[in-house]
Automatic annotation (TrEMBL):
This is YciI family protein. The lineage of its organism: Bacteria, Pseudomonadati, Pseudomonadota, Gammaproteobacteria, Alteromonadales. It comes from the Bacteria. Residues 22-109 form the YCII-related domain. Belongs to the YciI family.
Length: 115
């Protein structure tokens, strides 16, 4: 099997603050269930973590700029790592991800190269 990183992009950066404790708990339950199913199948390598909305982008010149709010649609909000035989199989797993409660989210599926 190969490892694939799911890179979660976009979404509402304030969903956590806007959500009720019950909604947050329900969403976390969906993630726990999804990761549990993957773990049972030997497909969960790392559950990953959500990422803070703020950050700094550094370019080749060494210039560092804050990530602007206007760029939230492209902001990486988190990641997970799964094991699959092919990118097609990993893509099918990604389609079941609970991140899609937000219609503005995309998931990149990228193979992790063994070095």
């Amino acid at each position: 099997m190969k490892n694939f990183m799911f890179i979660y992009e976009g979404g509402d950066p304030d969903w956590h603050a806007k959500s009720s404790p019950e909604d947050l708990q329900a969403q976390m339950a969906k993630w726990e269930e999804w990761m549990g199913r993957l773990a049972e199948k030997g497909q969960l390598v790392a559950g990953g973590d959500p990422l803070h909305n703020g950050g700094v982008r550094v370019d080749v010149t060494g210039a560092a700029t804050d990530i602007a709010a206007a760029e939230f649609k492209d902001l990486v909000s988190g990641y997970s790592i799964v094991a699959a035989n092919t990118i097609q199989e990993a893509t099918e797993i990604a389609k079941t991800c609970p991140i899609f409660f937000d219609t503005a989210v995309k998931v990149q599926v990228r193979e992790i190269l063994a070095m």
